[in-house]
Amino acid sequence: MTTSLNKAKDWAGRLWAESAALWAERSVQDDNYRRYVVEPVLLRQMKQVGLNSSSKIIEIGCGDGSHVVFLRGELGKMGLNSVHIVGIDNNESLIRKAKEKASSVNNARFEVGDATSVEATAEIMKSTGQVDLVIAMFLLQDTPDLEGVLTVVQAILKKGGHFIALVVHPNFAERLDDTGHLKRYGGTDLPLFYMSNSGLVQWRYIGYYPILKADGPPFYLPYFHRTVADYRDAFIKKKFDVAAEISLIPDCGISGKWREAKIEPFYESLWNVYWPYILKEPSSILIHAVNGRGATIGC
Fold first, then answer.
1. Which of 135, 139, 169 is nearest to 282 (CA)?
2. What CATH number matches the domain at 4-291, 3.40.718.10, 3.40.1190.10, 3.40.50.150, 3.40.50.300?
3. Where are the domains of the chain?
4. Phi, psi (5° rounding) for residue 188?
């Protein structure tokens, strides 16, 4: 039987398939945002996990492998060269890009897999077992099945293992919606609001989230809107202990220098639909949680 959730997954998959090439070849704006805003906070949280030489990490929704390559380099600086990272994504073209990008990187591999499917993840876990850390960078807001992702993450993680997720800040998405830059889904085949049978909010509305390009209008990725409280409640319902919620906004002193130097996307330009809110409001939020249940799957 085709359900609203399956229809939403199909729609999101088609949009990602249309945008995958643009994502893999996206210009410097996204790289700069991650380098200057995201990665320093991600590293601080990762250092609190207590990784050691035998630790294992999985990134779900790894895309073109940029974060796996970055983290593998940082782990080397921490003396953790033996830590193995597996990147999972359900888009085959992005996994091919990831393998190319990481061709000279040791202890990193990539597999095609659906982060909402316990069965697909179990196949990958046959060679990894449960892991110490799962990372999801800007994945949760573009999947309709938040409950499915959290179920898989809990299965992947050891009891007491850590989950670090970064999502578009819901308030920033609301700002883009108010200004007309986030387009609402216009179809009538999907409900405006959808809750799982367990009472977990899967989405409050569906939209097309703009991703910047330097030389033209943005392209779009699927966006499933939830509030910060929705994310928090979902983690709690799935028996995660939320250790930290960190809203990410550039330091005003540093961001002023970025603007003067015209480092994208931190200054006004023709196609920068994030301006000026990118400097004024948190545009993403990091959630660091600990697996309190220690669920397992057959593998």
1. 169
2. 3.40.50.150
3. 4-291
4. -110, 5
d(CA 149, CA 200): 12
Please write the tens of the pLDDT for every residue from 1-59. 469 999 999 999 999 989 888 877 766 788 899 999 999 999 999 999 999 999 999 99
Tell me the C-alpha distance between 101 and 73, whole Å.
13
Backbone angles phi, psi at 111, to 5 degrees: -140, 150
| Lookup: tokens for 295 | 């669920």
pTM above 0.85, yes or no: yes
The tokens for 236 are 């709690």
